[in-house]
Amino acid sequence: MLKVEGYTFDRAKREAVEAVQAALGEPAELTTALPPAEVDADLAIPCFPLAAQRRKSPPEIAGELARSVRPGPLLAGAQAAGGYLNFTLARPAFAAGVMADLIRGGDRYGTSEVGAGRTVVIDYSAPNVARQMSVGHLRSTIIGAALVNLHRHTGYRPVGDNHLGDWGTQFGTLLYAYAHWLDREAYERDPIAELLRLYVMFDEEARKDPALRERAREWSLKLERGDPEARTLWQEFVRHSLVEFQKTYDLLEVRFDHTLGESFYEDKMEEVISQARQNGVATTDGGAVIIRLDDAGITTPLILQRSDGATLYATRDLATAVYRIRTFRPAKILYVVGSDQRLHFRQLFEALKKLGHGDVGYVHVDFGLVRLPEGRMSTRRGRVVFLQEVLEEAIDRARALVDEKNPELPEAERREVARIVGVGAIKYADLSQNRVKNIVFDWDRMLALDGDSAPYLQYTYVR
To answer: Which of 11, 183, 298, 375 could crosslink 293 through cysteines, CB 3.0-4.6 Å?
Structure first.
């Protein structure tokens, strides 16, 4: 295994730092950065710390260094750009170095031991029970699985946890709808499809009769307080859901170390609430238990318990984090959750620090939305686009390509190639783009046999 500092790109960064230090005539503390994609450079050294020390503006420092610096063999030149000194790589020398790294590293190329002896918990996928996974779960699942792989190959012990949404007020909604509008034959034929119909029906009926939401809250409290009927139905919904989810995970070849849903922490929430109150971290406001976070610049308090005694998503997330810290002793916990939850995670992380868990690194790995082009994929089953359908669409399109390009292959082989190419195209279309931006599926580009696409990479690898 190559050590991190032995990779060619790391040597290029070291050359840039040493070239600047030589030009300055002193071993100054310097950092390297990657320039934005639109900047025609490969490496950058920020000059802002140097400007403060030398009483000159950052652009002035960068300009002086650009004229005096002598790049090493892996660097072609240096240019000033505002307060940054940008470097371009010497392409032939750099390419030769990378090829040597690949040959020397073999299957272990890119691995390291930077995380040796440390554990990282990665919370990802986390679909809601009693519904099919929608295309909205795609990014969390794929990004999270990639992070598990990356941490494993950099020496960490990754713990992948599928934090199922199997608790909360939505079950009150579902239990009420089940009790009043269930189509028994439809449920026995396809339980998840019928539960989704009930969920949508409740929303439509509640718009006409808002009092239904209070009836749903009553069911939610019955479930939380252990009502036998509510508990039995809830367990049934979870069981059906896990079977449905596994079909999608099998297609994606995604595995988890743990699948501990929100319900697992039901008996652990009271301890968190009590501890927060005893430590003076939580206060009571109008009967509700809250944690004020104004000192962290967050004006919206985190609510631990409503005035009616019901717990919330934030309560379960706090109990979940405390359990993970005690059980796995992680160096960091990553939450692969959409950008719309930024406030929630800011609140959660600050509350954890107040509760005495500030020595863990908390990271919200946020991401943008998935958007599909108009047409069959966006209208096949109404407003909801199911992830299983997206994967099947990709496989069908890949199969058409395989049939066209390689009609001589046996049927079983064409089917397997289509699965690998189709699912690979979905994964690459996600991971190859800016994580925090929304992405739109362009089927033709995703399945192209040349350029920046999964099939092109797969073809190159096979050759």
So the answer is: 298
